[in-house]
Amino acid sequence: MIKSALKHWNGRTRFAAYPCWLALFVLASVFSTSSYAQSTTLQQIKERGVVKCGLNKGLKGFAQPNSLGDYSGLDSDFCRAVASALFDDPTAVEFVPLTASERFAALTSGSIDLLARNTTWTLSRNIEYGEFIGVNYYDGQGFMVPKRSGIRSALELDNKGICVIKDTTTELNAIDFFSVSSMRYRPVYFDTNAEINEAYANGRCAAITTDRSGLAATRATLERPDAHLVLPEVISKEPLGPMVRHGDAGWANVVRWTLNCMINAEEMGITSGNVSNPTIDTNPATARLLGTAGEFGELLGLRNSWCASIIKHIGNYSESYERNVGINTALGLARGVNKLWTDGGLLYAPPIR
Ligand SMILES: N[C@@H](CCC(=O)N[C@@H](CS)C(=O)NCC(=O)O)C(=O)O
Question: What is the pLDDT of residues 221-237, one digit of tens each?
Fold first, then answer.
């Protein structure tokens, strides 16, 4: 198109070529305004100096506040990872605790910059509320019962009281499951984990249903975890992932590549322990990840050492997983499908190049 436009420029058809130039100009301006580092959200956060991150009010392993209101967990780690990418400072986060019912309005209204709250990626949420940037925990829904109930299968829950949190995929999956299993469904609804755990502990329902990671978390907070059993059935797919609002691709990229950085770092053996070691093996892919080769941070509107900052402060995916939900924690969750693809799991991050 440029060649033909130039040809016309020199000839009598100069005027006729005008629309062509106009089109080029329009295209160029469209590309420059939607270009990589242009993000209003990113700009606002840089000016504000903190990332506003929506997370669970209290879910052990994912977002658990201590007495000072300081959070630990896989999701709060993710908030801190984004802050590290932006500011090289994992504390540059304002945590915004949200119930399941509050979470999407908080995102769409702009009161948070990102939502990292054990939220399942579904089609309707993707269309109505925002962009899922990836999956930070592949989960599925299950049931937990007191062992002494004698219940050993979810198919024995006909007409039994089921504790469930409102405005969740949990609520919808349970309806499907009881219907296809030709069982009567008797839900008892709650807003928060604190309420549901208390109700379950007090025998207000025969079983509690939620994501299996959530069941492990609840079990760990009960007085005698061993007295409770997570039933074998997995009744749904719950890909849990962070979300951002629609309409700011630059910001979505920053959040998406934060997760990709942590997964790629695990694959390359880069940890919080060796990331700052100057003698670290720098093959070309490692150098791109650490920002010593290429300008990938700049493409995102960040420093080139953005990913090195994440690993330095938070660690790679495996470090965050093992610290918060892994086999040696109270939740005791084996990596399972959350292993890297190279180990037979589902975690597969696109390359930094
Ligand atoms: N992943 C599901 C369930 C999310 C969910 O809210 N789960 C409950 C149980 S694990 C929860 O986090 N409750 C905590 C609270 O609101 O206090 C979804 O996205 O709808």
Answer: 999 999 999 999 999 99
